[in-house]
Structure formats: structure tokens, C-alpha cells
UniProtKB/TrEMBL annotation:
Domain ABC transporter, first and last residues per copy: 2-227
Keywords, ordered alphabetically: ATP-binding, Nucleotide-binding, Transport
Domain of life: Bacteria
Molecular-function GO term, any one: ATP binding
This protein's name: ABC transporter ATP-binding protein
Organism: Crassaminicella indica
Pfam families to which the protein is assigned, alphabetical: ABC_tran
Family, per entry: Belongs to the ABC transporter superfamily.
């Protein structure tokens, strides 16, 4: 559905995107995460046809998106910095959308009034930041796009509204096989709704995978050995992080789970537990593994 191949983008001499690849299947909810300045918004602006790449290929529904207005009409986009026409009310903005997007669904717009509970005759620029985000979702959900691209979409929304909106997005994906890309620093929420994740850092896509596969390749393990941790294990395992509390060693180890466990078992541990690993932890340790200062990561 969305395929990006070897994408490069320069701003003057600065290379913001370096050989980026991205693949999103139809009906998938894809979480795009990364360190600050990694290139997420720049990538998204290519997917929405705002920027033209210097190198590489971008295909959405099999077509190039740049200067392709027919394809753009199938893509619903919530940018990180929202823009509405000055002086427009919600109703006027909805009419504008109705005229532009052939898939606009007035019935849905009317139904969603009950979810958002904002008077449609209000001028959008007079609404709070969070309410403006709600309006953006109200409009995008009513335009029934094939693809939704959401850049930091939940910033400024209260927890209840975030939950309501995610439910609407998930329902939409289930009913219509919408394809969704969400860029966010809120990894806890992304983890609950995404099936695939791409992690960016310094202009590169460093990992792209199904969330379950990502979790099956990295493990949090608590282990206790009678005579302390056998030092030779350091050579046999890909340890991304470790911490010792009393006799308990906590490790983040990359690799196939069975192999990791059998290696640890060779030295007869007294305790060997696998603990659940969150997307937030995967993000921290994967980036830590490529030399990014863990302390610098801002969520
Ligand atoms: N129009 C531009 N001109 C010059 N440099 C730019 C421009 N837009 C982005 N950049 C640079 O490209 C890099 C990537 O920026 P981008 O906004 O894509 O990052 P991001 O991953 O979305 O970051 P954040 O999580 O902080 O929002 C940054 O170093 C940024 O300064």
C-alpha cells in the first residue's frame, strides 16, 4: 500500500533522510517513532506529497504522490502544526472538505457531532489547541480516506478523548481496511494500537518490523547464579544493557529467545525469569545499542 525505497532528502547541505525504506500493508496501523530530529516529519511530508525527494521512490496505492492530486484526495493528513483557514467555522471547513474530497461522508460528519460535542458554528481558530485537534480528527474521519497519516496527532488531547479517538481509528481500520501511519513520542499508546513499527534515528530507518517480531528479538531477563554471573557469557550473548541489584542481574539481550535461554541455562542459574518488554524499552535499548545516549531520549 505504501512503499518507500532508498529515499534521500537534503536541505541545502544537510541530509535529513538517508536511504530510508518504509513498507506499510493495507489495513495496517504503523507507528513511526524516533529521536527528536530523526526525520519523521520530513518523511511524512514526502508521503503527503508536500516535499519532493532528491533520490528514491515513493509509491502509495501503486502511484507516485508528488503533484498527484487524485491520489492526495485519498490521503487524510493531520500535520504536526494544524492549519485551518482563518475565520472558518467547523461547518464552513466541513463544506470546504465536502467540495474537495469525493469520499466525504456527511452522515458520518453528523454522527461524529455526538463524539466531539463542539458547536460546529464555532470559529476554529478560537478553539483550544486540544479542541482544534478534535476538529482535525472529526474532519479526517468524515472524509473517509483510504490512508490516514497522523503526525503527533494526540498532543494536547485529554486522556478520555484520546481513547475515544483511537477507538474510532481502530473501528475504521476494522470496517474499511484503512491504512494508518502515526508518528508519536507516546510509545505506550502506540503499543496498544499499532501492529508495525518503524524506528528512525538521524535520518535513517534503523528498524522496521511487526511489533510481535520486534518483541521476539529482544528480551528482558532476570537471572541469578550461585557464584555470580559467569563472565564468559558476555562473549556468547548480545547484551544491550545490564544492571545488578544484589545478586540479581537484569539484562536486555538481543537474539532468538530459545538460544539466549539455553546459553544462560548452561551455567545452571538459580533464578531465570523473562520479563515483559514494552515498546518504550525496545526503543531505548535499540537506540542505546547503536550508541545513542539513552539519557537524551525525550518522550
Ligand atoms: N525545512 C527545513 N529546512 C532545513 N532543515 C530542516 C527542515 N525541515 C527539517 N529540517 C531538519 O531535518 C531534520 C529532521 O527534522 P524532522 O522535523 O523531520 O524531525 P522529527 O523526527 O519529526 O523530529 P521531532 O520528533 O523532534 O518532531 C532536523 O535536523 C531538522 O532540523
Amino acid at each position: 500500500m505504501i512503499h518507500v525505497r532508498n529515499l534521500d532528502k537534503y536541505f541545502d547541505n544537510f541530509q535529513a533522510l538517508k536511504n530510508v525504506n518504509l513498507n506499510i500493508q493495507k489495513g495496517s496501523i504503523y507507528g513511526l517513532v524516533g529521536s527528536n530530529g530523526a526525520g519523521k516529519t520530513t518523511l511524512i511530508k514526502h508521503l503527503t506529497g508536500i516535499y519532493k525527494q532528491d533520490q528514491g521512490e515513493i509509491k502509495i496505492l501503486g502511484e507516485a504522490v508528488y503533484e498527484n492530486s487524485q491520489l492526495k484526495a485519498k490521503i487524510g493528513y493531520i500535520p504536526d502544526a494544524l492549519y485551518f483557514f482563518p475565520q472558518y467555522t467547523i461547518k464552513a471547513m466541513a463544506t470546504f472538505y465536502k467540495n474537495i474530497y469525493p469520499t466525504w461522508n456527511q452522515e458520518r460528519y453528523e454522527k461524529l457531532k455526538q463524539v466531539f460535542e463542539i458547536n460546529e458554528n464555532k470559529k476554529i481558530h478560537k478553539l483550544s489547541k486540544g479542541m482544534q485537534k478534535q476538529v482535525a480528527f472529526w474532519l479526517i474521519l468524515s472524509m473517509m480516506p483510504e490512508v490516514m497519516i497522523l503526525d503527533e496527532p494526540i498532543d494536547g488531547l485529554d486522556p478520555l478523548m484520546r481513547k475515544k479517538i483511537w477507538n474510532l481509528v481502530i473501528e475504521d481500520v476494522a470496517e474499511r481496511q484503512t491504512t494508518v501511519l502515526i508518528s508519536s513520542h507516546n510509545l505506550k499508546e502506540l503499543e496498544n494500537i499499532c501492529d508495525h513499527v518503524g524506528i528512525m534515528h538521524q535520518g535513517k530507518m534503523i528498524i522496521e518490523n511487526n511489533l510481535d517480531n520486534l518483541k521476539s528479538d529482544i528480551h528482558k531477563i532476570q537471572v541469578v547464579y550461585k557464584d555470580g554471573f559467569p563472565t564468559e557469557l558476555h562473549k556468547k550473548l548480545n547484551i544491550l544493557h545490564q544492571k545488578k541489584t544484589g545478586s540479581v542481574h537484569l539484562f536486555i539481550i538481543k537474539g532468538e529467545q530459545e538460544k539466549v535461554l539455553s546459553t544462560l541455562r548452561q551455567y545452571q542459574p538459580i533464578i531465570l525469569d523473562i520479563l515483559p518488554l514494552s515498546l518504550e524499552e525496545i526503543f531505548i535499548y535499540e537506540l542505546g545499542g547503536i550508541g545513542y545516549e539513552i539519557e537524551n531520549i525525550i518522550f
